[in-house]
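fold-stage: in
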Amino acid sequence: FWYEEPTHEWVALLSGRAALKFADRADLHVLNPGDYLLIPAGCRHRVEWTDPEEKTVWLALHYR
């Protein structure tokens, strides 16, 4: 399934690792602690994987 939020989403990875997949791209966007990303409203995306060895903690802010 895909997330498709009606608001913009700013995401920061606080711990662990994760990879995001975007519907319009073939590659994965890998995030490490301290990395952040702006996901525009309406952008179809999903979490492809998270670190199996360490808890993955996100901070996500949704705004218009």
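fold-stage: in (second)
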Amino acid sequence: MANEERTKRIRILIVCVLVCILIYVGLESNFFYRTERQINFKLNGKVQEDNGYYTGDLDWGIFEGEGVYTYYAGKTLSGHWKNGFLEGFGHGTYKSLGKYSGEFHHSLRNGQGTFTWNNGDLYIGEWKKDAISGAGKITWANGDKYTGEFKKNQIHGKGKLKLASDKTYTGQYLSNEIQGEGKYTYTSVGKYTGNFLDSKRSGQGTFIWKNGDMYVGKWKDDAITGNGKVSFKNGDVLKGTFKAGKLIKGAYHTVTSKAIYTLTLDSGKVVSVKIKYSNGTMYSGEYAKNAFNGEGTIIYKNGDKYSGYLKNGIKQGEGYYKWKDGSKYEGQWKNDKMNGKGVYYYSSKIKAYKLDGKFKDNKPNGNCDYYKSRNESYTTKWKNGKCIKLVE
């Protein structure tokens, strides 16, 4: 009796162990879950789950073969299923978004595929883990096109953008923004080659207009800002510091049939100029209120030279004038003529040294000290350029 009781207990223990093993294997292999889904499918013609339902081929509760999974949120996946996942070529519809046709891996868009948005936009290219990643091409409904690299549903890397307006960009992108080195062509205007920041021309860059004009220098927020140089097709040159496309400080050089001009600007205004006229006369000096105002130097075509103050282009105030023959005047001017107190130095060809006194309309007028030599002088009185009296 004892042996029979022992044998009975051993058999019960073995049965319990086997049952436990079967339960463990069933749990590990999803046997019970698969069985439940298989029964569900037999009764309802579909496998019902929390987020949606599946219709199609099954291998004892596992999606295997052709089938469709419909999510309650509005997404639908259809194609060939393997071990419970959509694998290989398939289709996806996304409510309020669009449709996908292409490769899947583990039910995620992965590999080559095409997505058509409901608004007409179209993407053809590579996918990775359900996101646009890799090389591809997107065509927007408005006609704009981009061909190049993508990363996690964003334009990222090298690519080419062609807008319906005929503008074209080729270069670097960072998270949907034009960033880094690139080339932007404006069909009706010109082309830019250089740096970009947040889709705006920023940093060092070159712009060549269609008419041949060219700018080389700094940019900021899509505008010429910073140090740079504009070379015009006709030979004119702007060089200096720019702000929002305007020369703030620097120089403008231009050549016309009448003269060669070099204008110096500060705070956006011309402050001095250098001019060489076609007849040989040259001017260099201050410029204000659209005229020669301030200190300046004029070298005339005959060799005469004036250095001093000017007002509206005429000699006014203190100034120095030297004639070609060597004679010179230093003193006051008014209305472009010697007027006021001054000193006139005679040419070496004249047997006299200088005349120190008052002048009127380019002539000595009034009391003057006449120097026959450096050491010999007389006090004289003049009228309209003639000495009328020797003052004792």
